[in-house]
Amino acid sequence: MEISKDLIAASSTPIVLAILAEEDSYGYAILQRVRELSGGRMEWTDGMLYPVLHRLERLGHVEARWEVAKSGRRRKYYGITAGGRAQLAEERRQWQAVDETLRGIWRALSLPAGAGRPSTMLLPEGA
Questions:
Q1: Which tens digit of pLDDT belongs to each residue from 3-41?
Q2: Who's near 109: CB < 8 A, 6+ residues apart?
């Protein structure tokens, strides 16, 4: 299953904040964690991740710092701030509302005809 770019973009903020709430991390590790948590259904690229991280940093939701790895390579680590945790809680509330709304809609649309709703409501106009 391929997830649309619009849905991936819309979900990027809560996903990144949730991963960073788990622990501080760097770009490549965040990409790997997204792949792992999505069961391989979401394959993010650097070009998608770093603008999200930079925006979250500008908003004060994450802070960045440079560290030298055991290999001697410098890595930029990102950590969630108190404001980022508050934003994550708000994002979670909003996504839960969207999820509940969609589940309700899908349940309503799958009801058999005559179950309290006219079947014509599901047909396009003029059908």
A1: 899 999 999 999 999 999 999 999 999 999 999 999 999
A2: 122
Indicate the pTM of the whole model. 0.82
Which tens digits make up the pLDDT trace of 74-99? 999 999 999 999 999 999 999 999 99
Distance CA 81, CA 27 (A): 17
Q: Token pair 């934003």 is at which residue?
A: 87
